[in-house]
Amino acid sequence: MVAQFASEDALQQGPALRAIRKARVLAMMEEQGFDLCIFGRESNVKYVSGAQRLWMPGARNFAPTCLVVRETGQVHLMSFAPTQEGIPPEIRPEHQFLVTWAPGNFLDKLRAIPGVETARRIGVDGMSPFFSESLPELFASCEFLDAQAPLAQVRRVKLPGEIVQIRHAAAVAEGAVGAAAALAAPGVFEHELHAAFLARMYELGATAFSACGPFAILDGDNENALGGRRMIEDGSLVAVGGGVLFGEGYEGCVARTLWCGTRGNRPTRAQQELHGHWRRAVDGIIASCRPGNDGTDISKSSRNVGDNYIRSFVVRSTGFGSEGLIAASGLDEAYERAQKVEANMVLAVRVAIALGGGIYLGDEMVLVTDKGPELLTGMWSGVLEAA
Amino acid sequence: MEFDRKRMDAARHARLSAELRARDVDAVLITSPFNQEYVGISSLWRDDARYRDDPVAALFTADGELYVWAPRSEGMAVSVPVERLELSLPLDDKRGCQQLFDQIRSHVPGLRRIGVDVFTPPMVGGFDGLIPGVQVVDGHEIVLQARNIKTPDEVECIRQAQIVTELAALHARDSMRPGSTQNELSRLIAERAILLGAEAMGLEVVLNPVFSPHSKATIEGQLPFSAASTENLTMREGELILLDLGLTWNGYHSDYGNTWLCSHDPVATPEQKACFQEWMTIMDEVLTRIRPGVTCGELERAASKIQPRHALQHLYLAHGTGLVGHPEMPLIGSDLGIAFDDQFVLKEGMVIVFEPVVWREDQKAAFRAEETIVVTESGYELLGTRNYWPFDAEARS
pTM for this structure? Predict the structure, then answer.
């Protein structure tokens, strides 16, 4: 669907895209009555500021490293270095403060930000036990409120410029996962697939992953396989997948399960059926990803695909990494009902099929449009698909 | 010493149980992946945002029992016996949090005091009825306290992580030529490291040309050492490259810093050699004092005597290390101040990364590297080796 790359969408990048995202956050603050937002999650910081600070895997504990003041409309950032690298030019040196380790100094730096001392309603995206003790010192008669839920709602609906970057990210993920898939064969080790994925990811211009795997032999009944350093045996099912962060840090992800065997060997009948069941299940779920539906409609579609081989499924909103679950196996119905599907959302869909003692795991990404879902990823499953 | 995972798991559980008992805390709820590693749970390495949905949660009791809320079809391994495995709950959602705490109450009857390491939004503001009658305390601090002293198996993990990182980095250094790009070198490091036994990249690879047209300093007089590489820069002849990266081995983090000279014929200038020599003198003066009982203040003063400005203004002379995620204690020479350093006493089993920096304001030279040590019974042991070519070329001839 190359036609969707309208030229103005492609131009909605850099400062223009950052300005619209920030305006959306300020509008959310207005609506919620937040005087100040304090963000500690890197994905929220990226959304409102466009900053690409030091990346590391794992979930950092909360620290107030990004503040948005509604009155001034200004974003203030903690930086990890006395340089502008990775920080957009509109966030000038006077809007930055260097990382600090002493709580007293930290509070002084926050206090110096115009608009902070008069804030009463403060939205936060989390809290550490430490800051829950010390922040009230600074904000004596303030209320701390949940900014994560309303911001996730804003982030879920994508701008045209974001969709351009996400399409690229999906293509980079396919390339990186494809390099691992090309290597998968009997005698190859799981970690060699991981190394091939990372190598291709860097070659394609991404410098961080959103998930480095799965690269795991799925023989047996364990869909939660954490790959390691095992050798692929003749006739094994092997999951290859992963996610990359591309452009400003938008996620692309894809996964498939491959049959790895030598010439002369063939997948078993049960192994052959796995891919067909997965395709039907994932297509059924994707078909329900349309405006007007909510999470319960997606869950319903997972039960209506004609067979009951779905071990687990997860549908989540993605952008700067995950933006929360929309539907998943075993998820609370009231929670799912509250998750509305809207046009211009991008969803990542994972389905695991269990049959005959084997597992098939695969991921797709889908863009929700007014006309229905559009698949953003595609990858061949090799022999299983040919069979 | 041969690494023994079971022995390490048992020792870590014993340390954490002891910390909980000492504070009269019944259990700790752990949602940080780094703290989860400490109780034996390894997850697929994911970006910050990806840990927040379908999150792993763990409850570790003072009696050493472990309860785990596992994600749907997302890689996870637990190396210790689990009392009960439940399905992951959405913890950014109030209802999900409520279900979690209800389940915790049923697992730990008579719960009075619980540690929580990370507060999700519904927990902000005093846990708002989520767990009435139960006192919530800082769970992160409890786990960090247990993590502070490493057992020999943990030290072995860090040693392995350091070795793998060093070999991968040297592979890239030896391939580097003018015209090499940051991504090209990052690729060489990452691919080699995984093949050599690292589980994952624990940090973005920072390859930072300094004192070149690339540098973008925002504060006068400071070394423009960036904590990011966002532009895929091309390295040029004669450039000094500051390197910083980390990898994981059984969840433990390496921290590797070095200075490289990009050139077809790398020969260090006299100024560059002088910077390196001063850096070595600082390291020697600091390391020679390390043994149990010494205060961090003594180390900071030893460095200051050689060069008052021996660290980046916003960082430190040294920081503790262990599991990935955040510098551990002690911080030495940070803005916590010398009084903090003076009251912090080194103990056997602490693992510390020293990272002094020497630079000239005329921008003719700089040297930065990191060395990781473990405090031993009578002194210290270096985890890793020294490779400072070509700045130490003369010393070798």
Answer: 0.96
